[in-house]
Amino acid sequence: MEGLYLLIxxxxxxxxxxxxxxxxxxxxxxVTPVPCAAPHVLGLFALRSRVLTVIDSAVALDLRAxxxxxxxxxxxxxxxxxxxxxxxxxxxxxxxxxxEPAPPRALLSPGWIRMIDGVLEHEGEPLLLINVPALIGGxxxxxx
Length: 144
Description:
Elements lengths: L1 E9 L2 E6 L3 E7 L12 E7 L2 E6 L1 H4 L11 E8 L2 E7 L1 E9 L11 H6 E7 L2 E6 L1 H6 L7
Parallel strand pairs: 2-10, 5-7
Antiparallel strand pairs: 1-2, 1-8, 3-6, 4-5, 6-7, 9-10
C-alpha cells in the first residue's frame, strides 16, 4: 500500500508524519505558556486567527530539551477537530512510501518506542512512523 508522508528530522532521527493530517508547516515564535500544562505542551500560538496548542516533540519523546527561544519549525496538524503545532528540527519533503509499517530492527529509546507505529523503508533507509495522537498525548512514565 502506498501512502504520502511528511519527512522530518527530530532529535537526530529522520521520521514520518502522515500527510493526510498535515495542514501546513510554519515558523513560529512567541508561544504563550499555559499554567499547569503538561511538560510537553509548550503553550498556545495564534495562527491565521486560530489558536493552536504547541507540542514540544522532543520533550514528548523524552529527548534532550532544546532552546525554544526564537523561530521554531512547527508542523500544523488537525486531530479530532483540534489544531496542534508539532515542533520539529527540520522539515524535508512530502514523499510517497510503499509498504506497511514493520517493527523496528534497531534499539530505540523508550520515548521513541512509545511514539511510533513502526518503521517504513524509503530508498533503503528505515524511517520511524510517528503516532501523532501518542505524541500529542505526551510521554507516559514507564514503571520501573
